[in-house]
Structure prediction request, 361 residues.
Amino acid sequence: MPSASTTGAQPSSGGNAQSREHKQGNQDRKYTIEQKTAVIRVRKCSPTAFYDILDLEDVKMSVSDGEIKKAYRKLSLLTHPDKNGYEGADEAFKLVSRAFQVLSDPDKRKKYDTFGGDPDNRFGAGSASSSSSPFEGGFGRTPGSSRQGPVWEEEISPEELFNRFFGGGGGQFGGFGTGTQMFFDFDGGPGFRVHTFGGNRPRRRPHEANRDGDGPMPTISSSISGLLPLLLLVLLTLLSALFSNSMQDPPGPSLRFESPSPPYTMRRTTPRLKVDYYLNPEEVSDWSLRKLSQLDVRAELNYVNKLQMECENEIDQRGRMMQDAQGWFFQDTEKMDQARSMELRSCRRLDDLRIGSGVAY
Prediction:
């Protein structure tokens, strides 16, 4: 096997990839202890353990989008093969890039948190573990590849992701030799977008390219027959909605909780939770005791549902405040303290009723 120190990258269109391979095997290139430690830790992770790769496993249930970006920024700089000469830095850099691609995309992160495995792997999570690394064979392999493992369509390379990320929000990038202009947009929210303008025609996916083939034009009858299941589904939905509306009970009297206010002056108490509520006496003047007792049960259910919805809104609002306080690079301690001290009234009320909101104050 020829020594990496005696070979160099040839100046050609593929020089970057060739140089990368040579640098990867060059044992004379320097690296720090921190760079070596980062490469060893990342390569020990499973290829689809994306939180573990970014060193976020302990906080994966609550980690914010800003924290994911910070973790990628740190590890990509530590493992970049142009800066890190330790053996295996190239593979570690690809693992870090893939983890960021998945976790920075809200839809992919949701699928990953729910099902595990690589969300872009059409063969299921099980096949992702059959390969020692999801980057063997390169990014964006064609569906006809004989190697088993994840297949990512239209994925950008780790190097392109690195260049776009460190180019800054809203920055302009060259078309990587194609004359294309790309704009990298964080948009102040989760994930990011890459907008492409000009240049060559974008590469299409295989199933889109096949549409240009000479195939028979669909007839009107075949189009209608294809839409029949959808039309039947819509018809059944409309019929079920009509029947359910016709069988519903007429709306009951208006209810008011917490305190009386004219004309809601008639006080009632729910049977189980002992919650006071108030009615307009004129609306129930001809009601029997049995009907009023049924109303007590319904009022209690309405009150609990109301508290649960308000509690969820309070939790969401506090989460948004904490995410805003996190910032891109530095945490705003004043805003974070305000978010953590936000009063969750409805959640506390549920706890007082011994229903339990599951919220940690």
Summary: The mean pLDDT is 74. The radius of gyration is 30 Å. The longest strand covers residues 181-185. Residues 347 and 358 are 8 Å apart (CA to CA).
